[in-house]
């Protein structure tokens, strides 16, 4: 089922609901707010988490939008319609609306509560229905509801679709001639503490990455239409009939000492890891995680002076 919504006339406050969670340590959020296979995580419950993570990377998202603008004809002048596919709460979509003032931006997602939040954010930023709308779409079934666009951005969403090549093919077909498709899937996993933190076995982050990688593979295997493919994104874009025009990596580098928002995000990510991957983690690593998550522990991630937030995402762009 699909439906199109427009921004409410009045701005509303920050939704901030839900528990800031993260589907894995390595930078992936998982499962669906709708009834596909997989882990069936409640996306709506991840609203605060996705929104905070977006806000922590606002400078990078702005850099991305500006880079993409430079890849379009006339520095974005011809861009009339922008899609953010798998938009979540619409942080990136809001940035695109700012950086492409002549375009209407459409946030597309399968989770209605996340789209509500995207509309609230847009209204608070003064973006009316001429500038910002949403489309509720369960993909891949509802690809037809997307319409045509001059620029399509999709970040960490294609990996939630079983057949990633098919998803790119369909996104490519939704582009107008000369339009640009930009996909962000891989990058670098989060680093957030030194190798040796004076607690437990050194190297916790790399062990969390390893568990997350296995979990990610299992998650993908359960998706409808699951198909494995070499995740060479420029090549996949080429096979979708597009011409790759560049790949760029955007680094988020928040050094210690961290502010409260980044600490909240680390706490949320680690809680998520603790919750979802407990069975696959060693006892000593679970104890370390518990100490990092315990607000009463001297090791709590909320006050450790050595906590930082370092990660990166790679964007692959291709033109029709
Ligand atoms: C990891 S979040 C990414 C959000 C945002 N693009 C970002 O990079 O932070 C994945 C998003 O894709 C949406 N999603 C997952 N599977 C979907 C599907 N089959 N159809 C439509 N949306 C889906 C989720 O609701 C969620 O908002």
Automatic annotation (TrEMBL):
<feature type="region of interest" description="Disordered">
    <location>
        <begin position="1"/>
        <end position="39"/>
    </location>
</feature>
<dbReference type="InterPro" id="IPR029063">
    <property type="entry name" value="SAM-dependent_MTases_sf"/>
</dbReference>
<dbReference type="GO" id="GO:0032259">
    <property type="term" value="P:methylation"/>
</dbReference>
<protein>
    <submittedName>
        <fullName>Methyltransferase domain-containing protein</fullName>
    </submittedName>
</protein>
<dbReference type="GO" id="GO:0008168">
    <property type="term" value="F:methyltransferase activity"/>
</dbReference>
<keyword id="KW-0489">Methyltransferase</keyword>
<dbReference type="Pfam" id="PF13649">
    <property type="entry name" value="Methyltransf_25"/>
</dbReference>
<keyword id="KW-0808">Transferase</keyword>
<feature type="compositionally biased region" description="Basic residues">
    <location>
        <begin position="25"/>
        <end position="35"/>
    </location>
</feature>
<feature type="domain" description="Methyltransferase">
    <location>
        <begin position="82"/>
        <end position="179"/>
    </location>
</feature>
<feature type="compositionally biased region" description="Gly residues">
    <location>
        <begin position="13"/>
        <end position="24"/>
    </location>
</feature>
<dbReference type="InterPro" id="IPR041698">
    <property type="entry name" value="Methyltransf_25"/>
</dbReference>
